[in-house]
Amino acid sequence: MSLIRLLILITALNLSGCSPEDQSTTSNAGFAGLGQDADGFQHAEPHQLLTFPTDHVAHPDYRIEWWYLTANLEDNDGDPLGLQWTLFRQALMPPSERPAPTPWAADQLWMAHMAISQGEQHQVAERFGRSHSQAPLEHATGQPSRRNL
User: Fold this and answer.
1) Which helix (H) or strand (E) holds 91?
2) What is the per-residue pLDDT for 146?
3) Looking at the whole model, is its pTM more than 0.85?
4) Bond from prior residue into 99 cis (ω within 30 degrees of 0)
């Protein structure tokens, strides 16, 4: 009986020295990787000259950009109608690391949100897409200015 107690004691002591593997992971990447260094991407500069309508289209050499529209309208009865629409573009890698364009290669992610409110009613929708920066760009084009997802 004392041998069993000794084995139990040794087993208990061995197990007490074990600890579970740390399962938590922390990342400085932030939301959608935006906390990572932006090396390899162009950077917006404070005194950068903007040229419209040219600058209404996508700039694939920048890491992130978005188009935003809000409007306060009236319906046919004169009741107020609120509209909000946003299109986000997120580059997945700097231009120097991008793969060659193929039907499946994607180095840009797109996300669109839309909301319409009228009185107490509120309708929302969102869509997601992907593209390659060197492929024909369908999400944000210039003349005439067009955004879709």
Assistant:
1) strand 80-91
2) 61
3) no
4) no
Q: How far apart are the C-alpha atoms of 85 and 113, rounded to whole Å?
A: 6
Sheet holding 108-118, edge to edge: 64-74, 80-91, 108-118, 121-131
- Separation between Cα atoms, residue 64 and residue 49, nearest integer Å: 18
CA nearest neighbour of 60 among 143, 147, 139: 139
Residue 18 pLDDT grade (very low, low, confident, very high; cuts 50, 70, 90): low
Residues in the chain: 149
Amino acid at 73: L
Judge whether 131 and 91 are in contact, CB under 8 Å.
no
Q: Which fold has domain 53-140+143-147?
A: AttH-like fold (2.40.370)
For 5-69, the three-class secondary structure string (H helix, E strand, C coil) is HHHHHHHHHHHHCCCCCCCCCCCCCCHHHCCCCCCCCECCCCCCCCCCCHHHCCCCCECEEEEEE
- Phi, psi of 91, rounded to the nearest 5 degrees: -75, 135
pLDDT digits (tens, 9 = 90+) for 81-134: 999 999 998 988 888 888 777 777 788 888 999 999 998 999 999 999 888 776
Pairwise CA distance, residues 147 & 57, whole Å: 9
